[in-house]
Write the structure tokens for this entry.
Amino acid sequence: MKIKVNFIKLSLLFFFLLIVVFSACQKDNKPNQPVVLSDQPKQSLDESMPNFAINISNFRKVSTGMVLTWNDAATVAVTRMTPLTGSGPLPPFVEARIYAMVFVAMHDALNTIHPEYARYALNAPVQCQASPNAAIAQAAHDVLVSLLPPQQAYADSLLSASLGAIPNCQAKSKGIDIGKASAAAMIAKRQNDGAATAQFDIPQGTLPGQYRSTPPFDGPPFNGFMATPGWGNITPFSLNSGTAFRPQPPYAINSPEYTKDFNEIKSLGSSTSITRNTDQTQIALFWLENAPLGWNRIARKLSIKRNLDAWEMTRLFALLQITEADANIAALNAKYFYKYWRPITAVRLGNADGNPNTQGDPSWDVLAPPTPPIPDYPSNHAVNGGAASALIAGFFHQDQIAFTTTSSSLPNVIRSFASLSQAANENALSRIYVGYHFRHAITEGNKQGEKIGLYVFQHSLRPLH
């Protein structure tokens, strides 16, 4: 039986909406139901004191509550966009860009109050007498409402609760000003990065191995839709170019390696597979959610378990989503460079691909339709997972970290891992089990991602001391 997952369905109208959203700045577009902060962050420092200042002796005592509140708020705001699009969640490359901008603005705001790490966008004098919590909340709020105008009422309500927990004083006012400045600097720096012009038409492939639109995007009303061919050319956050760490070409259609990958996914990735076991099916659906969301959940859990302070925690979240944003850019750059066909196309046209060792099946379908409307090689999901695991491992100086995690795409299921790389490998394999990618796309994608994660860790938001 086919498992229909509305969760990943995309539409041309939806992507057009995203482009409009990205090019928008502050707009007065408020939903009717504000969400009020339910868990007030606790403050470890008395920010109402006239001589309040962040210095070497007390900055690590600042509560992480506000950081976690607004990290969660970003994911909630993105999730709340799903019913507004009418077709599915924001795609991972869009989601990662939003998170990166929000979390880096928070990071820059904190490091303008007490500089521990290099800033990304904000170049302003240090103001040690400002409230860190006010700065975090204001910075995150302003970026969110700029990128997601329909979520302004939600963000406004949360900001009111966040700032209401801070006594009125000069430190609070200074913190608000820093937050506003950090958000403005971030928005200005990314305003012309190319995201707003990433969607355009490109020709369909016609030869064996060439990408062409997959169902349902090959027919009305989509008429050959391919998602954001220009995303791989937008300005990265950390990488020098979207071409960074591009993998070697995919397998030739008549090669033994291709034949092996073809037969594997035809068997394991099918909606009617009798070779995919129960655990493999669970893996396919567990990792179906967008990678930036899933790996943010893992980073949150580890940051709390490791008792990070506010500066460390904000830096981890910022670095992770810089990594995810750049992983998406590099993956899409390679995808549209090679324009390799998806398994669903390959299997359905297997009798006409020129390879005598592949047997086609015109009715073959994936486990969780539809296949995302974007070329196969490399797997963006695998690039994201490899990048995230390498970044987090670099941050904590070890890969062997045991943890459990959950998923929004398969609720009430908990999976356990002995290391970050084990999770990344399972994340990559899920794309075979769900029928979206050939094995070569996931193995090379994971390798590319690992290089990206290591690069970002070594080059971005570095310690100042």
Summary: Residues 310-338 form the longest helix (29 residues). The two ends are 58 Å apart (CA to CA). Strands lie at 403-405, 415-417. Residues 19 and 197 are 7 Å apart (CA to CA).
